[in-house]
Design goal:
4-stranded antiparallel sheet, alpha+beta, 198 residues, 10 strands, elongated, 24% strand
C-alpha cells in the first residue's frame, strides 16, 4: 500500500572506543631508578592514591639523606637559638650571640625547606619524607601512586627494569565513560545529528 512515511536510514561506520582524555592518566617516575615491586596488573581496579609501582633510586636516597641532615641541623640550630634567648633574658649572654644563633637557625630552616621542596618534586608525600627505620622502608625507595580512580589499561613495567622521568610505567583510565570515535564520509554527514542513539 502506498503511504506517506518517515524514513529512518541506518548508517554503519568503522569506529573504535577510546578513553576520555580527561579521565586518563599516564604514570611515570620523576626520578631515575630501578623497579623493585609491581603492585598492579592490567585490568586491576585502583582508587586514587593506590600504590602502582615501587622504584629504588640512588638519587632519591642521596636527597633523602640530605633532607635528614637538614632536619638534624635545623633542630640543633633551633635549640641553640632558644638557649641563647633564655640566656639573654637572664643577662648571661650578649645580643650579638642571640643574633648569630638566630641567623644560623634561619639558614638551617631555609636549607630544610629547600630539601623538602626537592623531595616533593620527586613525588614524595610529607609523611614519606622521613621513611626509614621507624617505617621499615628503604630511604631510596619511592612508590608511584594512582592520580585517579579507574582501571589499569596498560603496564609498561617489569621487575628490575631501569626507568627515568621520560618513561610511562602504568596507564590508568576511568572507563565509566568512554568515547566512540566513528569515521564518517562527507556524503553521510546529513544523516548524523547531535543526540542520536548509536
Amino acid at each position: 500500500t502506498v503511504a506517506d512515511r518517515t524514513l529512518h536510514p541506518s548508517l554503519s561506520l568503522a569506529a573504535e572506543l577510546r578513553t576520555d582524555p580527561d579521565r586518563f592518566a599516564q604514570v611515570g617516575p620523576r626520578v631515575a631508578g630501578r623497579i623493585t615491586k609491581i603492585h598492579v596488573r592490567v585490568g586491576d581496579r585502583v582508587r586514587k592514591g593506590d600504590p602502582l609501582v615501587t622504584i629504588d633510586s640512588a638519587e632519591l636516597g642521596r636527597t633523602r639523606a640530605d633532607y635528614m641532615s637538614a632536619v638534624a641541623k635545623e633542630r640543633v640550630a633551633r635549640r641553640v637559638w632558644e638557649r641563647e634567648t633564655d640566656l639573654l633574658a637572664a643577662r648571661a649572654t650578649s645580643s650579638r650571640e642571640v643574633q648569630q644563633a638566630e641567623g644560623a637557625f634561619q639558614t638551617a630552616e631555609a636549607d630544610l625547606k629547600a630539601a623538602q621542596t626537592i623531595l616533593r618534586t620527586f613525588g614524595l608525600l610529607d609523611a614519606e619524607m622521613e621513611a626509614g627505620a621507624e617505617t621499615g622502608a628503604s630511604p631510596s625507595a619511592i612508590t608511584l601512586r594512582s592520580p585517579i580512580a579507574g582501571a589499569v589499561v596498560n603496564r609498561g613495567a617489569s621487575l628490575g627494569q631501569n626507568v627515568d622521568s621520560k618513561d610511562t610505567v602504568v596507564e590508568i583510565a576511568d572507563l565509566s565513560e568512554v568515547w566512540l570515535i566513528g569515521k564518517a564520509f562527507e556524503r553521510d554527514l546529513a544523516l548524523i545529528k547531535v543526540g542520536q542513539n548509536v
